[in-house]
Design brief:
This protein has about 750 residues and is α+β, with helices and mostly antiparallel strands. It folds into 4 domains: about 230 residues, no CATH class; about 80 residues, Calcium-transporting ATPase, cytoplasmic transduction domain A (Distorted Sandwich); about 240 residues, Calcium-transporting ATPase, cytoplasmic domain N (3-Layer(aba) Sandwich); about 140 residues, Up-down Bundle (Four Helix Bundle (Hemerythrin (Met), subunit A)), CATH 1.20.120. It has 27 helices and 22 strands. The protein has a 7-stranded mixed β-sheet with strand order 10-22-21-20-11-18-19, sandwiched between helices. A 6-stranded antiparallel β-sheet has the order 2-1-3-9-4-7, with no helix packed on it. Strands 12-17-16-15-14-13 form a 6-stranded antiparallel β-sheet. Strand 18, helix 18 and strand 19 form a beta-alpha-beta unit. Helix 1 runs antiparallel to helix 2 and helix 2 packs antiparallel against helix 3. The protein is elongated and about 120 Å long. Its EC number is 7.2.2.12. Pfam families: E1-E2_ATPase (PF00122), Hemerythrin (PF01814), Hydrolase (PF00702).
Length: about 750
């Protein structure tokens, strides 16, 4: 505790305690105890006078005024023991206040103290230590084991183990692969790693965090300012009660006793401590609340607005299907497109390259690649002319036909984007892409409802149809598409009439809307610096479910602050009544008041701890949860194969479908069903105790049984065909089974992915 208390307050408290004890010893020895007790009173009287004058100069409530009057009264009335006890209580109260404040700010202070100061720059001569401010964009850096990543950059080593707890609150190190972006401020928990700087120290993630932490420490909540005003009003009331007690009884000591127990410490100390403790608790969970005013507003939020892309969704394009013309192989189409896209820095191009590598497709080096601004790329891959991008570029000037119209219709209805691929002068297919809903978004929205948010609104710059497709999947109350930054501001302004409003977003175009809301919430992990600066709350970890957690922390902090004030002031009021009627002497009153102060401050510090009702149950190891989701990623091509087979039954002659059906049956039997059986027999029994309750995975097991039944019926139908081509009735039944199996699998995978993510 000593490290959290300044030497001045510690020495002052020790000196006053020594004088108090010295007077007691003198009394026991038959000498006068007055000199040391008077010295203690005068010393703290000087301190109280200085503090009161400073507060009044800053136009703040003179919170030490009652203590000043009380100690002066003990000198006048020769109540030296009471005065010495009050002096000790005043000194120890200041020490306790400082301890509580520093304890509450511990997480914020730790963020400031661990800011990186040195970096190791790699040159031809080796690694040289340089100040972090000297690092330039493009520098090649070495980060040794246990060191802090100095600036934002790209990982050059094959892999790295990183402790990201300072930014995310997660205690388990994360494994990062070559090419992944590293945020400054995380700790290298593995062997030496090399990286390339993408930003200077001033423009890196941790520098922004430091700036926001400084704002958080400098801010003062309206609740605490209100407490100051109440304290100022409280002082005349106390003086009036003390005067009435003196006048009624004729005993000035009663007035002194009233002053002793009337110090508004519960109001002055408890509220700021609880607010700062809640801010510190949130910071440990990767939720940076910039000031007390933001925390109080966040605690009262009942209307939430969200930007779609990058907030409710991942903001990253993901391949969801491949549509090909007759005679074109889907994997070969993706391979050709990804090979060409290797030379592009466009985010969609990089997504396709990543997907092709995940499918272990052999990419070739393109030749003669040319980028057409706003359209896409053209070049040669393995001697074939390939175009990837817009429909106009990939069709090589050809006319649209029925196949193209059907693809465009699907994209419109399902809210998909597409990278059209042309090969050797004709349109060969399209890679359908979707901005995926975050795995934690549905659960986070449900948690927000339980936390008191009664209206949710989604804003998007996308077409209304695309926005509505996402909104329908999430169940928000309203959706507003095709909104410019100004349109988002108008929407936020309109919703302010419905209650205390919060706006969450991540992009530069969201910054005005964040500033317009009562509380702006920035997705700071991958969002723009503009949104982080405009936001009152910044989520430092790329998890949307931290938002309802932050809301609960704010609500609990405000509730504890109010509870401490009401209970503390209530106890002080009762004590004042006893003192006014002569049932509480000044010395006893001073001890009682100190007990009240300690109790309310300790209660305020409860805001540092997690809510007992929300304490996390046992979780899956993050590595296991990631591997389970990766298994589904590896099975995604199986789903595409089933969907393509179902559509192929419409497009081909009946004599051509038998090889396709045999191939699909083989993929299901060899890749899909073993995975589902392993989950049912080995994984689910392990998950059940973690989830808790009676048969917690019963509905998921029901999904397995449905998959097994559909796969068996499909296999029976295919076996029944033999070598004979299916008739129309058989084709219809096969199509139905394939589409039904595809739908059940996609829903089942989505449910499992959400479960794994929530258990992580």
């Amino acid at each position: 505790m000593g490290s959290w208390i300044s030497n001045r307050n510690l020495m002052l408290t020790a000196l006053v305690a020594g004088l108090l004890v010295a007077g007691g010893v003198a009394w026991l020895l038959g000498a006068s105890p007055a000199p040391p007790w008077i010295a203690a009173i005068v010393m703290m009287l000087i301190v109280a006078t200085v503090e009161t004058l400073r507060a009044l100069w800053r136009r703040q409530a003179g919170i030490d005024l009652l203590a000043l009057l009380t100690m002066a009264g003990t000198l006048v009335l020769a109540e030296y023991l009471a005065g010495a006890v009050i002096a000790f209580m005043f000194a120890s109260g200041r020490m306790l206040e400082e301890y509580a404040g520093r304890r509450a700010r511990k997480a914020l202070t730790a963020l400031l103290e661990r800011a990186p100061r040195l970096a190791h720059r790699l040159t031809a001569a080796g690694a040289e230590a340089v100040p972090v401010d000297a690092v330039a964009v493009g520098d090649h850096l070495l980060v040794k084991p246990g060191e802090i990543v100095p600036v934002d950059g790209l990982l050059s080593s094959s892999s790295a183990q990183l402790d990201e707890a300072a930014l995310t609150g997660e205690s388990v190190p994360r494994l990062r692969a070559r090419g992944e972006r590293l945020a400054s401020g995380v700790v290298n928990a593995g062997g030496p790693l090399e990286m390339q700087a993408l930003a200077t120290a001033a423009d890196s993630t941790y520098a922004g965090v430091v700036r926001m932490v400084e704002q958080a420490q400098a801010g003062e909540a309206p609740f605490t300012r209100m407490a100051d005003r109440y304290a100022l009003l409280f002082t005349p009331l106390v003086l009036l009660i003390a005067a009435l007690a003196w006048a009624y009884s004729g005993e000035p000591v009663r007035a002194l006793a009233v002053l002793v127990v009337a110090t508004p410490c519960p109001l002055i100390l408890a509220a700021p401590v609880a607010i700062v403790a809640a801010i510190s608790r949130a910071a440990r969970r990767g939720i940076l609340i910039k000031n007390g005013a933001a925390l109080e507003q966040l605690a009262r939020v009942n209307v939430m607005l969200f930007d779609k892309t990058g907030t409710l969704t991942t903001g990253l394009a993901r391949l969801v299907a491949i549509e090909v013309r007759a005679g074109v192989d889907a994997d070969e189409l993706l391979r050709l497109a990804a090979s060409l896209d290797q030379v592009s820095q466009h985010v969609t191009a990089q997504s396709l390259v990543t997907e092709a590598r995940r499918r272990t497709l052999a990419l070739s080096l393109p030749q003669g690649a040319q980028e057409h601004a706003g359209e896409g790329l053209r070049g040669r891959v393995d001697g074939r002319e390939v175009a990837v991008g817009s429909l106009a570029l990939a069709s090589f000037g050809g006319e649209a036909d029925a196949w193209t119209a059907s693809v465009l219709e699907r994209m419109e209805l399902e809210g998909l984007s597409g990278a059209f691929v042309g090969v050797d002068g004709r349109l060969a297919g399209v890679l359908l892409l979707s901005d995926q809903i975050r795995l934690d978004t549905p659960r986070a929205l449900r948690e927000l409802r339980r936390a008191g948010v009664r209206r949710t609104v989604m804003l998007s710059g996308d077409r209304q149809e695309i926005a509505e497709a996402v909104a329908t999947a999430l169940g928000v109350d309203a959706v507003l598409g095709e909104r410019s930054p100004a349109g988002k501001v108008e929407a936020v302004t309109a919703e302010r009439a419905n209650g205390v409003t919060a706006m969450a977003g991540d992009g530069i175009n969201d910054a005005p809307a964040l500033a317009a809301a009562h509380v702006g919430i920035a997705m700071g992990a991958r969002g723009s610096a503009a949104s982080s600066e405009a936001g009152d709350v910044v989520l430092l970890v790329d998890r949307f479910d931290r938002l309802p957690e932050g809301l609960r922390i704010a609500q609990r902090g405000r509730r504890i602050a109010l509870q401490s004030v009401v209970v503390g002031m209530g106890l002080s009021g009762v004590a004042m009544g006893f003192a006014a009627v002569g049932l509480l002497a000044p010395v006893a009153g001073a001890v009682l008041q100190e007990g009240i102060d300690v109790a309310v401050i300790l209660n305020a510090l409860r805001a540092l701890r997690s809510d007992p009702e929300q304490r996390r149950a046992p979780r899956l190891p993050p590595e296991l949860a990631q591997e389970l989701r990766a298994q589904h990623e590896r099975l995604h091509p199986v789903l595409e194969r089933i969907e393509r087979a179902a559509k192929a039954l419409n497009d081909r002659e009946t004599t051509d479908v038998l090889p396709e059906l045999d191939a699909v049956a083989e993929v299901i039997a060899q890749r899909l069903l073993p995975h589902e059986r392993e989950d049912e027999a080995q994984l689910y029994p392990k998950l059940a105790p973690i989830v808790g309750g009676f048969d917690p995975l019963g509905s998921m097991s029901r999904g397995h049984r449905e998959i097994f039944c559909l796969a068996r019926r499909l296999d029976q139908r295919i076996a029944a065909l033999g070598q004979a081509p299916p008739d129309e009735r058989q084709l219809q039944e096969l199509r139905r089974l394939l589409f039904e199996l595809d739908a059940v699998l996609r829903l089942h995978f989505a449910q499992e992915d959400e479960l794994y993510f929530n258990l992580e």
